[in-house]
Design a protein that fits this description.
This protein has five helices and six strands. By secondary structure, the chain is of the alpha+beta class. The chain has a five-stranded mixed β-barrel with strand order 1-3-4-5-6. It comes from Streptomyces naganishii JCM 4654.
Length: 246
């Protein structure tokens, strides 16, 4: 088992290998992380791990609030994630390689990173200025019939794009070439679909590429059908507002 220790950046979203991640870093714990990454030799990657938050907040409260308006907000690297932060995160995440880490005049950072490798979260160390995780690298196995499944997913994804563009009254650019390597297809489609975080997390931690593609094929057909029935509203938006009995 190959393990690695890396700075940990929890987010309310899922990062997939090959996908670009822009970050606006302003909390002190993550600013400290970026200052440490800037000390990495230029010939070495500036790596950190991204995990999706299961229970907690991406940004810790910075002022007294409910239910006790007099209580001081929790501070420190694990603020907002409970006594054992490992339990607050999904257990499969992605390593990010920061191509750009630019410090602004006010001490905040502009970061542009790319997802590289899936990892499993083994433990979290909160003893320093930012969270550090012990991680196990996860191999991407192709599974059975990955090539044929990728072709089917791409066909369904193009139909999904057309329906979604129509529902949002946007034009669809068809000039961009889509990849044909199955694992790349599976990650691109997982990132591009309008899905909630638990569903994207399920796709990230699929046991192999074929399993992920099969799941995506079902999702694409279901979502496309829903958008066809409700052409003015992407289906995921139904969960973002109050339910009316009218």
């Amino acid at each position: 088992m190959t393990t690695v220790r890396l700075p940990l950046f929890p987010l309310n979203s899922v990062l997939f290998p090959g996908l670009v991640l822009p970050l606006n870093v302003f909390e002190e714990r993550y600013r400290a992380m970026m200052r440490t990454l800037l000390k990495t030799p230029e010939d070495e990657p500036r790596r950190f791990a991204v995990v999706a938050i299961r229970d907690g907040h991406e940004v810790a409260p910075s002022a007294p609030g409910m239910p006790d308006p007099t209580a001081e907000p929790e501070r420190g690297p694990a603020a907002g994630f409970g006594p054992d932060p490992a339990h607050a995160f999904h257990q499969v995440g992605c390593v990010a390689d920061a191509a750009t880490v630019r410090e602004r005049a006010d001490g905040t950072f502009e970061v542009l990173a790319t997802g590289t490798t899936r990892v499993r979260l083994l433990s979290v160390d909160a003893s320093g200025p930012f969270l550090v995780a012990e991680l196990e690298e996860l191999a991407e196995e192709p599974g059975d019939e990955a090539g044929a499944l990728a072709e089917g997913v791409l066909r369904s994804f193009r139909q999904y794009q057309k329906r979604l563009a129509g529902a949002r009254e946007r034009s669809l650019s068809t000039g961009a070439d889509l990849p044909d390597e199955p694992s790349v297809v599976s990650y691109l489609v997982a990132a591009a679909m309008v899905l909630d975080t638990p569903t994207k997390q399920r796709l990230l931690q699929a046991p192999d590429t074929s399993s992920r593609l099969r799941d995506e094929l079902k999702l694409l057909r279901s979502e496309t059908s829903i958008i066809r029935s409700l052409p003015s509203l992407p289906s995921s938006d139904l969960t973002r507002g109050p339910t009316s009995l009218n």
